Amino acid sequence: MKSELELRGVQQRFHARGVASGYITAVDDVSFTLAAKPPQVVSLVGQSGSGKSTIARNVLGLQKPTAGSVLYGGKDIFKLSRAEYDAYRRDVQPVFQDPYAIFNPFYRVDRVLWKALKKFGLTKSRSKGLELIEESLRAVRLEPENVLGRYPHQLSGGQRQRIMLARVHMLRPSFIIADEPVSMLDAQVRKHFLDILLDFQREHAMTTLFITHDLSTVYYLGGEVMVINKGQIVERGPVSTVMHEPSHPYTKLLLDSIPQPDPDARWTSRISVDELEERADAKAAPAPEAPIL
Ligand SMILES: Nc1ncnc2c1ncn2[C@@H]1O[C@H](COP(=O)(O)OP(=O)(O)OP(=O)(O)O)[C@@H](O)[C@H]1O
C-alpha cells in the first residue's frame, strides 16, 4: 500500500488522420497527485473528448503515456518489478461505466468475486471466501441471496455496478479510479452508488479519482475537483470554491452550461394543435417529382 499516486507531465498523443500534424494531443502536460492519507475524493470533470478516460487509462497502466510518467509510491508504474506491479494492481482498482462488459454472460456473477479472491490470494478456504464475499455484498447494500447464483442479465445495471464495488470492498485498495461509473444509472441508484464511495472513503480510507462530465455529481461528492479542457487541467480546488468562485473562464463556461430550473419561468411561445397538424401534413406530403432530363 503506497501513499501517493502521481502524474508528472503526462502527455498522450494519438495518431489521427485528417489533422495537419498527423496526431492529436489527448492529454497535454498533466500533473497532479492523489494522496491516500488522508483519504480524499477528487473529481475530474470536463466535457466529452477532453481527455478524461485517457488519463484513467494512463493511471491504470492500460496506456503508456507518450511523455511524462505515472508514479506509484514514487516509482514509474511502467518500470515496476513483477511483485511491485502485482501490489499496484491490487492497490489501484478501476470501476468503469459499463460493468456489463466485465461480466461474462455465460457465468454467474459470483465468478467475478471468486476470481478476485483467487487472483489476489485473499484466502484458500472456500467457507472463508464465501464469508468475505457476503460481507462485501452487504457493505454495498446488496443481499447475497438476491444476487449470488444469478447471471449478469438477471441483475439491474445498478446491481451490476454494486457487485464491482463489492469487489473493490474485498480488495481494500488505497485508490479507486472510477470512470463515468454512474452515467448509465438513474438518479436514485446513482445516489446509492455515490454514498457507497463516500462510505469507502470514511470507513475504509480509500481515495477515489472520480471521472465525470456531470457537475451535479461532483457537487454531491464534495471534496476536490480538477477541471480539464482540451487535455489540460485548468483548475483544481475544493468543490465549494471552484463551484462558487471559478477562476478559469472554461470553468465558468462549464458552470453556465448547467440548465437552471426556474419555477417562475413560463413557456412563452406555445404551439397550437392546429399548427402541429399543419407541420405533420407538410412532412407527409409527397416530395415533388424530379424533373426528367
Ligand atoms: N486510442 C485512441 N486512438 C486515437 N484517438 C484517441 C484514442 N483514445 C482517445 N482518443 C482521442 O483522444 C481524445 C480524448 O479522448 P477521451 O476518451 O480521453 O475523452 P473523454 O473526456 O473521456 O471523453 P468522453 O467523456 O466522451 O468519454 C478524443 O479526441 C479521442 O477521440
UniProtKB/TrEMBL annotation:
It holds the Pfam family oligo_HPY. SMART domains: AAA. InterPro entries: AAA+_ATPase, ABC_transporter-like_ATP-bd, Oligopep_ABC_C, P-loop_NTPase. Residues 5-255 form the ABC transporter domain. GO terms for biological process: peptide transport. It comes from the Bacteria. Gene3D superfamilies: P-loop containing nucleotide triphosphate hydrolases. Transmembrane segments: none annotated. One of its GO terms (molecular function) is ATP hydrolysis activity. The keyword rRNA-binding does not apply. Keywords: ATP-binding, Nucleotide-binding, Transport. CDD domains: ABC_NikE_OppD_transporters. This is ABC transporter ATP-binding protein. The lineage of its organism: Bacteria, Bacillati, Actinomycetota, Actinomycetes, Propionibacteriales.
